[in-house]
Write a structure and sequence with these properties.
Length: 113
């Protein structure tokens, strides 16, 4: 069997990898267009979740900072601190029964989580 060279979507330029042709199946992602207005969909989802009462009265969401891959600017309007940094503070977060935080822990170990 001769190897098949494929280019993996890795880094900025990709990563070529030679794989044996035997039992090789290449699966490529399908493009799914983004939502026209993520903020509207998020708000609608909180008010009308699947198989649940409205979450908007009991759930508070916390979005990660700009260093994480989250489109905060499209789903959550923000204000600014006196130093010009973006911030959004809501005392309703402290009153919520459930607090949902989004984001990722890059390079975290199970012990940290």
């Amino acid at each position: 069997m001769r190897p098949v060279t494929i280019k993996l979507a890795y880094g900025k330029t990709g990563l070529p990898e030679a794989l044996p042709e035997e039992n090789l199946a290449i699966v490529e992602p399908q493009f799914i267009p983004g939502l026209a207005d993520e903020r509207v969909v998020l708000i609608d989802s909180l008010h009308s979740p699947i198989h649940s009462n409205s979450l908007s009265e009991i759930v508070a969401l916390v979005f990660c900072d700009s260093t994480r891959p989250m489109p905060n600017n499209r789903v959550l309007p923000m204000g600014h601190t006196s130093f010009g940094a973006e911030a959004w503070v809501c005392t309703e977060y402290l009153k919520a029964d459930v607090n949902v935080l989004t984001g990722i822990l890059e390079g975290a170990t199970v012990e940290i989580i």
